[in-house]
Design brief:
Oligomer: single chain
Number of helices: 12
Radius of gyration: 36 Å
CATH class of the largest domain: Mainly Alpha
Helix content: 25-40%
Length: 401
């Protein structure tokens, strides 16, 4: 039986029982209350007739009570009114499964099923003016769905999008679950980030109210805890102090799109201004390294800059050797490369794999030059990808600082 039909049956049953009581009791003070819909019982409170208050009778017992002819007519009329009212009251209950609160929120939403973005037009026509864009991750409210176009509102954008590029309702929710990050916004003050999902685990950090962390959906889920990404690692926070939502965005107008592009160009110009490309080669003292250390450094160079220009390879080797000579790091190549948390290819086993298979000749040559004292990084001891925007000396695909 569907949810709606079951609700109709229960409502009509209870209402009829109440109607019978009214017909029997006359002017008595009667209160009908459902104790158990399955057993179809009602409670009677009748102070006028002298019955015991709180008597529980089944509907079958009520129907067997003697009724006068007038009461029977009144009951028949009441039955018709009650059945009609009950059916009308329940008619609005839809068939199908009960939706969660989140599913209800998504019932009238639409997302763009695109790799980049799609146009939002002023009218439902491909020749109409473009008034905005819906990008991957943008969500909108549906105003009206037509045969080919959907009228949407999102942010400051009000226009039409092609149906073929959209997903709606629960399909949009499923799309968001698959393609969009889930964020946890901290709602408390000084919430602890822990290494494991336990109050006995070590505290990694404390975060303030309003901090946004990305939820790790593939991590182990523990009741009462949220697995989140913090400083590149999976950590845990108490679920009681975070509001979890999809990291969706809103559509943008053409003017907003131009402003975003302008700011991005300014940031790129600042990044380039902070970076230099003038390379000065310095000759340091040669380091006495074993054959194994030469191969180890060559393997790291291959992992970090194997596809770059030769100068980029030498620069990676020079940065390692600058650490060895600095006094701030271990004074051996092996200890510098395998220092915890310093070079990810060393920590994840890629360096060892390259050593086992033999590094490329160009990487071995670059390692030997760096060990012999060649430094083209101006004394840098660290490097990152140039696109990170970090200030420093750009050589190949990395910035050295």
């Amino acid at each position: 039986m569907s949810l709606r039909n079951k609700a109709v049956k229960n409502a009509v049953t209870v209402a009829l029982g109440f109607g019978i009581l009214c017909a029997i009791a006359g002017t008595a003070s009667i209160t009908g209350r459902v104790n158990d819909a399955a057993s179809q019982q009602v409670t009677i409170e009748d102070s006028v007739k002298g019955r015991t208050a709180g008597v529980v009778l089944s509907l079958n017992e009520l129907e067997e009570l003697a009724l006068t002819e007038v009461q029977k007519v009144e009951y028949a009329q009441l039955e018709m009114v009650v059945v009609t009212a009950a059916e009308e009251a329940i008619a609005s209950i839809p068939d199908g499964p009960i939706l969660t609160e989140e599913e209800q929120l998504w019932q009238n939403r639409v997302m763009a099923d695109v790799e980049d973005k799609m146009n939002v037009r002023a009218e439902a026509s491909k020749d109409s003016e473009i008034v905005g864009r819906m990008r991957k991750g943008d969500v909108a409210e549906v105003v009206e769905i037509g045969e080919e176009w959907t009228h949407i509102k999102s942010g400051n954008v009000d226009g039409y999008v092609k149906n073929e590029y959209c997903v709606y309702g629960l399909d949009a929710l499923a799309y968001a679950n698959t393609n969009i990050d889930i964020r946890a916004t901290i709602t408390g003050t000084g919430i602890r980030v822990r290494s494991e999902a336990s109050t006995d685990s070590s505290i990694v950090a404390s975060v303030s109210k309003g901090t946004v962390l990305i939820v790790e959906p593939d991590a182990e889920q523990v009741d009462g805890w949220l697995a989140v990404r913090y400083t590149g690692k999976t950590r845990y926070i108490s679920a009681d102090y975070a509001e979890v939502t999809h990291a969706t965005t809103e559509a943008i107008t053409i003017a907003e799109e131009k402003e975003i592009a302008r700011k991005k160009a300014e940031e790129e110009a600042k990044r380039r201004a902070a970076q230099t490309t003038e390379i000065t080669v310095v000759q340091n003292a040669s380091f006495n390294a074993s054959t194994d250390e030469v191969l180890l450094l060559a393997a790291l160079i291959q992992c970090e800059a194997g596809g770059e220009c030769y100068e980029g390879k030498v620069a990676v080797g020079a940065a390692v050797m600058n650490r060895v000579r600095s006094g701030r790091y271990p004074n051996s190549i092996t200890e510098v490369i395998y220092a915890p948390g310093q070079f990810s290819p060393a920590g994840n086993g890629k360096v060892a794999s390259v050593v086992a298979n033999g590094p490329k000749a160009s990487c071995i040559q670059a390692a030997q030059e760096a060990i012999n004292g060649v430094d083209n990084t101006n004394g840098a001891i660290s490097f990152r990808l140039a696109k990170s925007g970090h200030a420093g000396l750009v050589i190949g695909n990395h910035v050295f600082f």
